[in-house]
């Protein structure tokens, strides 16, 4: 973390939340260990569980993921949608995609995940039909564009879920500092779009880990 960045949740509370989660299989634990070792920014088990629950609550069967890395969050979505469901993995890095394919197969969900390599929004445009959930975790300058694209592709009642929407607390530090950091300005813009009072959507930013925004399309 850079100087001045904030822990959103006190580390002790983070550890407590993680300690409550008992059920994780070997493949997921292996991915978590690798992410810690190699500094791969995965959502982790506390947020992964939230995703699983959101998918169950909305009876999701079609999940589009924008920015999937080694497939850790993909695994949570894929387990939640069950055997009849489908998840689209996207990442611009073919090495990530190769590793993800192996993990997802070993995790028993390879058959319900389609792996797409390239720009996440372009990949989404190539897939036909509406989604129950779009999960956004791409590079932050892409967030405002992803908001508009995802909202167009969700069914009514579908969810746009977006990670890092508190962006290490930087979003709370006002316009001047944000102007120097395009990523912060983009996440702030995403949050304004998501919270804009309109009749298309309703959003809540959950201050879990680095902030997770859940938007329901009306
Ligand atoms: C934060 S990581 C994703 C972590 C993953 N969602 C998880 O929690 O397990 C972001 C990933 O998105 C990819 N990425 C960033 N911007 C992208 C874009 N515009 N199109 C496709 N992939 C992108 C990066 O290569 C990186 O692997």
What topology does this entry show?
Layout (H helix, E strand, L loop, with lengths): L10 H10 L5 H13 L5 H14 L4 E5 L5 H10 L4 E6 L2 H13 L6 E5 L2 H7 L4 E6 L6 H11 E10 L10 H7 L1 H14 L5 E6 L5 E6 L1
Bound molecules: S-adenosylmethionine (SAM).
Write up what this structure looks like.
This protein is of the alpha/beta class and 218 residues long. It has one domain: Vaccinia Virus protein VP39 (Rossmann fold, 3-Layer(aba) Sandwich). The protein is built from 9 helices and 7 strands. The chain has helices at residues 11-20, 26-38, 44-57, 72-81, 94-106, 120-126, 143-153, 174-180, 182-195, and strands at residues 62-66, 86-91, 113-117, 131-136, 154-163, 201-206, 212-217. The protein has a 7-stranded mixed beta sheet, with helices on both faces. A hairpin with a 5-residue loop joins strand 6 and strand 7 (212-217). The longest helix is centred in the first third of the chain and has 14 residues, at 44-57. It is globular, with a radius of gyration of 17 Å. It starts with 10 loop residues before the first helix and ends with a strand. The mean pLDDT is 94.
């Amino acid at each position: 973390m850079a100087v001045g960045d904030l822990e959103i949740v006190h580390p002790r509370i983070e550890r407590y939340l993680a300690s409550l989660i008992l059920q994780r299989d070997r493949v997921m634990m292996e991915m978590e260990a690798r992410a810690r070792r190699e500094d791969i920014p995965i959502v982790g088990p506390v947020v992964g569980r939230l995703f699983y629950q959101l998918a169950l609550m909305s009876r999701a069967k079609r999940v589009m993921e924008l920015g999937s890395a080694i497939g850790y969050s993909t695994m949570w979505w894929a387990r939640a949608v069950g055997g009849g469901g489908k998840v689209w993995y996207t990442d611009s890095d073919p090495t990530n995609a190769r590793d993800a394919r192996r993990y997802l197969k070993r995790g028993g969900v390879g058959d319900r995940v389609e792996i797409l390599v390239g720009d996440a929004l372009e990949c989404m445009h190539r897939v036909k039909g509406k989604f129950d959930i779009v999960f956004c975790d791409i590079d932050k300058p892409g967030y405002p564009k992803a908001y508009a694209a995802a909202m167009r592709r969700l069914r009514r009642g579908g969810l746009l879920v977006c990670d890092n929407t508190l962006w290490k607390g930087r979003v709370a530090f006002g316009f001047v500092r944000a102007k120097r950091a395009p990523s912060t300005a983009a996440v702030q813009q995403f949050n304004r779009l998501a919270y804009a009072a309109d009749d298309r959507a309703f959003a809540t930013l959950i201050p879990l880990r680095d902030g997770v925004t859940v938007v329901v399309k009306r």
